[in-house]
Write a structure and sequence with these properties.
Elements (H helix, E strand, L loop, with lengths): L1 E2 L12 E4 L2 E4 L2 H4 L9 E7 L4 E3 L11 E3 L10 E7 L5 E3 L2 E3 L4 E4 L5 E3 L2 E3 L6 E2 L3 H4 L9 E4 L2 E5 L4 E2 L4 E4 L2 E4 L4 E7 L12 E3 L2 E3 L2 E3 L5 E7 L10 E8 L2 E3 L3 E7 L7 E8 L2 E3 L3 E7 L4 E8 L2 E6 L3 E4 L5 E3 L2 E5 L1
Parallel strand pairs: 1-6, 4-7, 5-8, 6-9, 7-10, 8-11, 9-12, 10-13, 11-14, 12-15, 13-16, 14-17, 15-18, 16-19, 17-21, 18-22, 19-23, 20-24, 21-24, 22-25, 23-26, 24-27, 25-28, 26-29, 27-30, 28-31, 29-32, 30-33, 31-34
Antiparallel strand pairs: 2-3
Length: about 325
């Protein structure tokens, strides 16, 4: 097993990231005031070449190669073990990650995180592929994959802050009070030479998401992070054929920051099964932002729930052929 630990007062050495518009330092520049916080310690495994990192599989199918930290439930909540995907075309498979903080930061496209297990991790992946690299050839964008992973007793699942990412066949059994899977735009962040304004053409398919204490099983929102000049756009995303349960909100979409140029458009939520969620669908548009083009069809909602579909200031959308049972 790899064991990540830092018992000293000094933070881990920083790592240089090569972006499509220039270089930056992962901790010092990327977090810019939001982190590092006092006492923060990062332990980074920097994968800066297009390699395949494969763990050992025993005949019974259990994963023998582990990356172990002690961030989960620790008094030192800022000790974050992180696997840093710092090159295009990296594959990480059959690893078991235990007690890590952010677990994985994927900063370049073309990655595949597959067949891994996350146990008692705080977050299970920030998927932030550089937009400039994703669309270096606009006619042939670079796809990335997070598939066939098991998340057990973790606080939250992966965050998608980029484009052309497929999440499929994952099993998420989460213990946190936040989000299961988040599709998020961070806006035009000025501290690093990376574009976070565009989040599009992502696919969430055939995932099982259970987060009994959660705010939302799947959330889609535009935020402004680290002093961004303007918000971003989230469009052309598909969420289909997922099993979603336990959270207060099954699917939650929020658009805001319109004066800074934000919108959520053209999303398809289809063929999903919702159970034990008080608000299976909640969509709201704030501050004169734009939330439109929603297609919600062929979903099954099994209660008890008190409001199966709630929409505020949502326009040009289609809701058809959904099945409701035991709602009130």
């Amino acid at each position: 097993a790899f064991v990540l630990q830092n018992e000293t007062e000094d933070p881990a050495a920083d790592v240089t990231v090569h972006s499509s518009h220039g270089d930056y330092l992962f901790v010092r520049d990327f977090f810019h005031g939001d982190r590092p916080k006092p006492g923060l310690k990062y332990q980074l495994i920097d994968i800066n070449k297009p390699v395949t990192l494969t763990g050992e599989l025993v005949p019974e199918g259990s994963l023998e190669t582990r990356i172990v930290g002690h961030a989960f439930g620790s008094d030192d909540s800022y000790l974050w073990g992180t696997l840093l995907i710092n090159a295009q075309g990296v594959t990480v498979q059959y690893l078991r990650m235990e007690n890590l903080g952010h677990s994985v930061w994927a900063l370049h496209p073309g990655f595949a995180i597959e067949g891994c297990e996350f146990f008692q991790c705080t977050w299970c992946g920030y998927l932030v592929p550089d937009t400039g690299y994703v669309y270096a050839d606009p006619s042939n964008p670079v796809r990335s994959y997070y598939r066939g992973n098991i998340l057990d007793d973790c606080v939250g699942g992966p965050h998608l802050v980029g484009s052309e990412i497929e999440l499929s066949g994952n099993s998420l059994h989460l213990s946190g009070s936040g989000n299961g899977i988040a599709i998020v735009s961070w806006g035009e962040v000025t501290t690093v030479p990376v574009d976070f304004t565009l989040v599009q053409n992502n696919l969430l398919e055939n995932n099982e998401i259970n987060i009994p204490n959660g705010w939302a099983a799947i959330t889609m929102r535009n935020d402004i992070r680290w002093g961004a000049n303007r918000g971003g756009s989230i469009k052309n995303n598909i969420i289909r054929d997922n099993l979603i349960g336990g959270a207060m909100r099954g699917f939650y979409a929020r658009a805001r920051y319109s004066p800074l140029g934000s919108d959520l458009t053209d999303k398809v939520v289809s063929g999903n099964y919702f159970y034990d969620t008080e608000l299976p669908f909640l969509m709201e548009c704030l501050n004169n932002a734009s939330l439109e083009g929603m297609t919600i069809n062929r979903n099954q909602i099994t209660g008890p729930c008190w409001m199966p579909i709630g929409m505020w200031s949502v326009s040009n959308s289609l809701i058809v052929e959904n099945t409701l049972e035991n709602v009130y």
